[in-house]
């Protein structure tokens, strides 16, 4: 590692980033930086392992190095666990450890290799007459010469060969989902699925992506998958087959004062959802286009005085009529199927619009949002739909552009 650090410092002295003018200079600098980071990660991993062997955390009254790393240097629980696990693995695989220290292997690659270094795995390998040192050399070679994904395949192949006829693992043991809700009501998360569960998940999500490919779609692959996941939730909720939740079927609940629902100038955060997120009045109006509405009269001290009967904004017979007429999302260039769409009020019922077929349009979620934020759709006397942007220009497709 000292040699790498000297190269790094020499690079900084001789060629400050602002002074780099050729592609080779920038790429060489990038390669050196990655190697230095790998070498630094290797030294950190070795040091943490030594501290663990010495039970050094006890000096600060901490139970383990994982706890010390979380509390004293503010690493995440996941990263702290990875460093500790990598340190234990490197003791078993010296060739991998050497490549890591030289900057040729990343900490992420060591984490992929770590399951192969477990005590029970190595004991089984020795029992079957497998040369562990040869495995170590092979893993180091693959890690330094092959793409990242290949390394995982090699590790899994090694683990599978140790027990080809063993009991089938319980797939549910590897499934986990963690969800975090942020201050603005948005949600992020991560998940872990077994191979079969992951295949099912990807199959459903891909079907949603492939069925929603409007003309001129500029969304990234990540955004397409995100929209598909929400569409999956929409379809599942609409099917009405989910278990009962709090005595009623699961659905999206939004509470908003009537004055804010009607007021086009209402501030963000006018409405609140059942899980505590705050949403804008515009978003609430969009959800209210094609949902159930319950009027509740609140007294001066905040107590409910009267709860009106829940009514479906577009009853089933009107929904069917709009489905038959429009067939799919009517926004220019979109053909999302009707069962993915809401029925949109061209003039919102909160502003006096009628709930009838003439005041209705099928719109998928993405385009329903667009229409509630400046875009406009309009049905012509001949039955064709036209779409306008917020600046008043019309969105024209192929044949219309050539006309």
From TrEMBL:
One of its GO terms (molecular function) is endonuclease activity. The keyword Nuclease applies. Residues 317-369 form the HNH nuclease domain. Keywords: Endonuclease, Hydrolase, Nuclease. It holds the Pfam family HNH. It comes from the Bacteria. InterPro entries: DUF222 (IPR003870), HNH (IPR002711), HNH_nuc (IPR003615). Belongs to the Rv1128c/1148c/1588c/1702c/1945/3466 family. This is HNH endonuclease. It comes from Blastococcus tunisiensis. The lineage of its organism: Bacteria, Bacillati, Actinomycetota, Actinomycetes, Geodermatophilales.
């Amino acid at each position: 590692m000292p040699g790498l650090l000297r190269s790094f410092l020499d690079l900084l002295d001789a060629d400050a980033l602002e002074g780099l003018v050729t592609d080779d200079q920038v790429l060489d600098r990038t390669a050196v930086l990655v190697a230095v980071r790998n070498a630094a990660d290797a030294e950190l991993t070795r040091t943490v392992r030594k501290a663990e062997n010495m039970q050094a955390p006890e000096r600060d009254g901490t139970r383990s190095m994982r706890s010390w790393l979380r509390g004293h240097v503010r690493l995440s629980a996941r990263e702290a666990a990875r460093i500790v696990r990598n340190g234990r693995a490197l003791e078993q695989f010296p060739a991998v450890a050497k490549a890591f220290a030289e900057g040729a292997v990343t900490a992420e690659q060591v984490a992929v290799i770590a399951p192969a270094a477990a005590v029970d795995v190595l004991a089984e390998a020795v029992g079957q007459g497998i040369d562990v040192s040869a495995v170590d050399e092979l893993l180091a070679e693959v890690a330094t010469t092959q793409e990242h994904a290949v390394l995982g395949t090699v590790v899994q192949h090694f683990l599978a060969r140790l027990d080809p006829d063993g009991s089938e693992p319980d797939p549910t043991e590897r499934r986990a989902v963690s969800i975090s809700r942020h201050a603005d009501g948005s949600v992020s998360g991560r998940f872990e699925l077994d191979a079969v569960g992951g295949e099912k998940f990807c199959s459903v999500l891909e079907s949603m992506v492939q069925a929603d490919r409007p003309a001129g779609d500029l969304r990234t692959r990540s955004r397409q998958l995100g929209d598909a996941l929400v569409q999956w939730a929409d379809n599942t909720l609409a099917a009405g087959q989910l278990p009962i939740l709090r005595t009623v079927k699961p659905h999206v609940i939004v509470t908003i004062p009537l004055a804010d629902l009607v007021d086009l100038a209402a501030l963000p955060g006018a409405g609140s959802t059942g899980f505590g997120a705050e949403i804008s009045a515009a978003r609430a109006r969009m959800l209210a286009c094609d949902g159930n509405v319950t009027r509740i009269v609140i007294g001066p001290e905040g107590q409910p005085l009267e709860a009106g009967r829940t009514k479906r904004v577009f009853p089933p017979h009107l929904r069917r009529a709009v489905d038959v007429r429009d067939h799919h999302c009517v926004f220019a260039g979109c053909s999302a199927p009707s069962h993915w769409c809401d029925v949109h009020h061209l003039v919102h019922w909160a502003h006096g619009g009628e709930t009838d077929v003439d005041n209705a349009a099928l719109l998928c979620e993405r385009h329903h949002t667009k229409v509630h934020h400046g875009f406009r759709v309009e049905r012509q006397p001949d039955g064709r739909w036209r779409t306008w942007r917020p600046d008043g220009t019309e969105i024209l497709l192929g044949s219309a552009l050539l006309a």
